[in-house]
Design a protein that fits this description.
Layout (H helix, E strand, L loop, with lengths): L7 H13 L4 H8 L3 H14 L13 H12 L5 H7 L8
Helix pairs in contact: 3-5
């Protein structure tokens, strides 16, 4: 079974329902097969970038940008998740 694709609007709907307490994590796991880390990444990206966090599409990152992100991580500016959210990086392995 492949990973379910969500529209940006659906992601925001899920985030807002989860944050408001209307939907529990276990319900998201049962209905959508989501794990806790995924919903937390969505929340961080949404809080940092709004709906743009989910509509950017595929992007390529320059070597310089990647080095900049690594340097921020190594200097303790933020966790990997913080930096991914800050720069709206769509794929943690990019």
């Amino acid at each position: 079974m492949g990973k379910i694709k969500f529209t940006p609007e659906k992601k925001i709907e899920i985030i807002e329902a989860y944050k408001s307490g209307k939907v529990a994590y276990s319900q998201l796991q049962d209905v959508y097969g989501m794990n806790r880390d995924e919903i937390y990444r969505w929340i961080s990206k949404y809080e940092a970038n709004g709906i743009e966090a989910f509509v950017s599409g595929n992007r390529r990152y320059s070597k310089e940008f990647k080095i900049h992100c690594i340097e921020e991580y190594l200097s303790g500016i933020g966790s990997v998740d913080d930096i991914v959210a800050k720069y709206n990086i769509s794929n943690r392995g990019a």
